[in-house]
Amino acid sequence: MRSTPRSNRPRRFLALLALPLALAVSAPGLANPTTDSATTPDRSSTGAQNGVGLMRIVVADKSGIDRLHHLGVDLAEYVKPVDNGIEVHAILSPQESQALRDQGFDVQDAVSDQSDYAQNMAERAAAIRAATAATASTDTLTVLRAEWFTSLDNQLFLNIEVKSSAGTDATTVLTASWDSGPGTAMGSGGTATLSRFTDAGQYMYHRFSNPVPITAAPAKVTITSNQGGTVTVDVAKWLGSPRKAPGKHPYVSDFVDHYMDPTEVTARFTSLAAEFPTLTELIDLPYKTNGYRRKAQAQFGTAVPSTLYVTSTAYGSDGGNDLTMSLVNPGTANAPLTVSVSGTAVTVSLATDGSGAITSTAAQVVAAINGNTDAARLLTASTYRGNAGTGTVAAAPVTPLTDNLKAPASVSREPFQMKVLRIGKHRDGSKVGVFLYCQEHAREWVTPLVCVESAERLLRNYAQDPNTRKLVNDLDIFILPVVNPDGAHYSMYDYNMQRRNMTNHCPASNADPGRRNSWGVDVNRNFSVGSVFDGYVGATATSCTSDVYAGPAELSEPEARNEVWLVDHYPNIKLSMNTHSYGGYFMWPPGAYKADGREVLPRVDQGTEAYFWTSSDYILSRVQEYRGTAIWPGRTGPVTDVLYSAAGNSADEHWYNRGIIGWDFEVGADIYNPTTGRFSAVGFQPPFAEGHEEAMEFANGNIGILEVARAYATDKSQPRSSLKVVKQEAGATSFTFSTSEPANVYYTVDGSRPTYDSPKLALAGMREGVQSITVNSDTTVNWFSVDIAGNVESNYKPDGDGSNYNKQRVTVQ
What we know:
By secondary structure, the protein is α+β, with helices and mostly antiparallel strands. The chain has five domains: 6-112, no CATH class; 141-237, Immunoglobulin-like; 281-289 and 418-713, Aminopeptidase, CATH 3.40.630; 295-399; 721-810, Immunoglobulin-like (Sandwich). 22% of the residues lie in helices and 28% in strands. Strands 15-23-25-24-26-31-27-30 form an eight-stranded mixed sheet, with helices on both faces. Residues 1-49 have low confidence and may be disordered.
């Protein structure tokens, strides 16, 4: 709010301008009594806006701001230093903008104008219309998930997800009440309100933000809406599916006792390959990384216009760290600016005036260094972050250049040779391949331990444990323990929060030493499917200092190209697991969407989605076996449904380009404190005691994935399916199909023979199960099912001429 009416402000601007500023008023239609309304731009609340916008103005210094204030210009509370002065924002009409330009002000483009206002108002009106339409009648509630589970210390939890047909209206409130077991009263177990979950501006569903702690396992839950809808459903148990008893022979585990850097991990894998030559081979991936190395640098000056920095031509480890530079005051009057080189020492003798004062600016010193052939052979110079460098530099003593890297000498500075440990009794491509890979993000220290523990268990239990022997004999297992070795070294020894690799794609304006923790590419945003370059969100291609920088192009990074090479070179790879941290998630594709309309990558078909869910129950039960950790149902599902959009991630790359069924672990589930009733996050690098436990339980999960993969590889059983009528009303009958295992159903309703080109049973919606098909007259439905392994029901040949498909008549009342 303004505390002073415009009419009481200084009138100098109005007097100076041919078209004076209009009065900003609170009452409609009030005119400025001191000006001619015929020549004043109409800015009243009842008149046309006449192009009024929020405009950028650049002034040389704060005196320019003071002058604008003195003239009575309507300035926003925004000030930003820019290269040529200070940027401020002002509300101006086109006439007012021109009048200021005539006074010598640099009025630039609009931050926003009336077209933005109109769009905002149109969007608001559309949202109101949608909400009004959604709540015009009693809403329909679709329960997506209702499950109870146990986690650490056998604490019980309840998870519920419900979609309301009125969910686009933010005032829709859903409340859940549950019993305390079979035969007990509804509400006896508790009551809680669900949170409305939106993503990219789109309503998704209502859910508990965190699972609700409960005291007894409920049998049923009732959800009610303030819009009138209600529904009661059974509550299922999440996780804990029974599995065959482990072998009678001792099973050995726990092979990690500290956080390991990539050099240690690779050495461990190399020794395993040497120790178990009949079960393994070590694959050198073709693209070496940039290396744990950087150019050496030194910076001179503290005030921005007087600051410059130099960067060695060679990497620090290749001689850049041996260079020195000094800025010398010659101590004489009228001295010229000169640059000299003696061995690895660069000396800049600064220019002086007649009184002996230094006159060399940062820009002049930069030009002199870069223009000297001997100096340019050793290093390049730059002003600070693109500044014009007009400030006078100060003398500086001999300063060594340094790459600022702190890892011990045991960590090579050369390009890193990434290695994959291939485990299997038959490594000839005849067995189903499984790709386990870890540490795409450098700061996730627990993840390589998961891969190490998994490899150790497979090899050291092979001789005595029959279940392990089956996995190694029947599968072809590829384990890449560290996808991002350079970044991981940097995270461990230099900057623990480093997420990306160490490849610096930044221009000189972002390449000074102060930016050294902001360089690199997010390897898990550098792939070619659903990338930022194709308009998907969750990454950037323009900010080279962003933690989700996707790089200059898809697959620009050797780390990403190595993954692609592996899955292309070994096409028998059919399943994969990408281990990240933290938060406790279990996810699968799709993993990215476009913001406009939340356009998600094509969802997997319903048979594959069912396979993901069925497998998750088994795999996450294996995780839970170690110490009771339950991955929440609300953190299980497609990436876009339970986390966010991750443009250009590797799971999408492998699924959409090659059909590889891929999961993502996020190890490090939140820990519940029964005393406080709160969940606590564990972070990327928890104390090793916690990191060890995470590595153990998710190595269990990896073994579970291999068991699922073996079941897939050895599956010769044909699925069975049936048609089920779900709704009948006058003139319409709706039906769907159920299957004995995850399978796709192909069907016809025109009497024709079903084939792979026939309609396929689809998903009803996100997390909503299978669709219902509606017919309006008596119809013969023909169909068959095929499971994920390719087994066709009744051995029917869709491409043949047989008739041993399913048939059923659906009648309409």
